[in-house]
Write a structure and sequence with these properties.
This protein has helices at residues 2-72, 76-79, 82-105, 108-126, 132-154. Helices cover 91% and strands 0% of the residues. It is rod-shaped, with a radius of gyration of 30 Å.
């Protein structure tokens, strides 16, 4: 009879230990999978943010080049050809969309700096500031503040 009880107790303890081992392994696997998914999501979000920042920087640079084209014309008015106006309007439209995507993907702090920088690009496109040096002086501050903040966000 004692052997029967000893056997039963052994089976119960063995079964309990087996269950505990499986439970612990399953919990650890679930935690590992959760961490992997969180890491994947963070990497995807970072890539998304990087893409929108890259696009914004490309668009601002294109805007600066368009402004330079207009300043290089014989005079400010003649630089605003139909082709130039079409390109500038299309670029500014894309720039404002990209700037708003910064708000959606990154947040209001960087959005405000992007808005300031996009506004400066818009200003040098449509307002005669007197020459390329004056345009660069107008752009330099907002550009540097934005780029430094973007670097800090992605850091």
């Amino acid at each position: 009879m004692n052997q029967l009880w000893a056997s039963l107790i052994g089976v119960v303890i063995g079964g309990g230990m087996s269950y505990l081992g499986q439970f612990t392994t399953a919990r650890q696997a679930a935690r590992t999978e959760d961490k992997r998914q969180a890491t994947q999501l963070a990497e995807a979000r970072r890539a998304e943010r990087l893409d929108v920042l890259r696009e914004f920087i490309e668009l601002t640079q294109q805007g600066i080049r368009l402004a330079e084209d207009r300043y290089e014309a014989p005079d400010w008015s003649s630089g605003g050809t139909l082709e130039w106006l079409t390109a500038a309007r299309a670029l500014i439209e894309r720039l404002w969309i990209c700037e708003r995507m910064i708000l959606v993907l990154i947040g209001p702090e960087l959005y405000q700096l992007a808005w300031n920088y996009a506004g400066a690009v818009n200003h040098v496109l449509w307002e005669d500031l007197g020459g390329p040096e004056a345009a660069w002086d107008h752009l330099r501050g907002p550009m540097n503040v934005f780029l430094n903040a973007a670097h800090g966000k992605l850091g």
